[in-house]
Specification:
This protein is mainly alpha-helical. 66% of the residues lie in helices and 4% in strands.
């Protein structure tokens, strides 16, 4: 069957997505999760930098490779929207990686168990993002003014990123949500291997890894409030938005093991993310009067992100500066 892709008045692609397209996408995502859990990381072990680099390259290749299917199914405009959404989500996810480092470091989670916790965190993140995406698209389709709300929120977030206090500390132990979990879920203070729950004297108790997982999911919920509206600024098609989010999220675990100790080297990333959020926020708010081609969005996002990385590499922090500790947040979004 031929699937037509045409652009609507708002310059976004309008797709005819068949059920089998969703079946293929979800089948690929599920297969990747099963291979990762049951084959690549069947046994708990510490992830080496080389392994993290190889897996990160593989996940990025898979994410970019899916754009070929998008092109074959829906055409060039849909592919550009997918790549724009993927790049936005991937860049905004770097902050999430650094917050994970704070949480895992605070709870002193052994390196060999971190991947298992993050796996289930990613699984939960996919469900949360799907909920946010379908709700967001439904709101946009029913209420045009929601675009202005999302756009204004992205501008607010961009300003908060630029004005955030870089010396502000994040203390996972002070989370009210975590204290609520500890009061309502019977727990043990001791780790029991990679297990989230264990049985002691016939009682089923949550291990500290469960508390870590709860905080990981909570941080993703917070970050989704920023990233989902940002991706909706470059596409209103649920299939494009979800697939770009899904493939970006799937690579977060390997990215964590690759970047968690490099936070201090990305000194201009926060400013770059602020510019990206401001751009997509303005684009969303002026869409009724000014139509920016999707390829311009992709080019702007790519150039800003690359510039932030290159600037961080060329102009590192002065040696006299205090070293950046993993307990320092990358931005004010978390």
């Amino acid at each position: 069957m031929t699937v037509l892709a045409v652009e609507d008045a708002s310059n976004f692609v309008d797709l005819t997505v068949e059920p089998w397209h969703w079946a293929v996408l979800l089948g690929i995502v599920l297969a990747l999760l099963l291979v990762d859990l049951l084959v690549l990381h069947r046994e708990a072990h510490e992830i080496t930098p080389r392994e993290a680099a190889v897996e990160t390259a593989a996940w990025v290749s898979i994410g970019l490779g899916f754009s070929v299917l998008v092109w074959l199914w829906f055409g060039g405009t849909a592919t550009t929207e997918y790549l724009s959404g993927y790049l936005v989500e991937q860049s905004l996810s770097v902050d999430n990686v650094f917050v994970w480092a704070i949480i895992l470091g605070y709870f002193a989670v052994p390196a060999m168990y971190q991947h298992r916790v993050l796996f289930w965190g990613i699984f939960g993140a996919l469900v949360l993002r799907a909920t946010f995406i379908f709700a967001g698209v439904a709101l946009i389709e029913r209420f045009d003014w929601v675009l202005y709300v999302f756009g204004a929120f992205l501008l607010f977030t961009a300003a908060r990123l630029l004005l955030a206090d870089e010396d502000e500390q994040i203390d996972p132990g002070n989370s009210r949500f975590l204290r609520l979990v500890r009061r309502t879920v019977p727990s043990t203070p001791e780790l029991h291997g990679p297990h989230l729950f264990t049985k002691i004297d016939g009682r089923r108790l949550a291990t500290p890894l469960f508390a870590v997982l709860v905080l990981v999911e909570l941080t993703d919920l917070i970050f989704a409030v920023d990233s989902v509206p940002a991706v909706l600024a470059v596409s209103h098609e649920q299939f494009i938005v979800f697939s770009s989010n899904a493939f970006a999220i799937l690579g977060l675990r390997s990215m964590y093991f690759l970047l968690a100790d490099l936070q201090g080297r990305f000194r201009f990333l926060q400013q770059g993310l602020a510019v990206i959020l401001a751009f997509v926020g303005v684009k969303m708010m002026i869409a009724e009067w000014v139509e920016l081609p999707t390829w311009i969005s992709l080019a702007v996002i790519a150039v800003v992100l690359a510039s932030a990385i290159v600037a961080s590499w060329r102009f590192p922090a002065a040696p006299a500066d205090e070293p950046v500790d993993v307990a320092t947040p990358a931005s004010g979004r978390g």
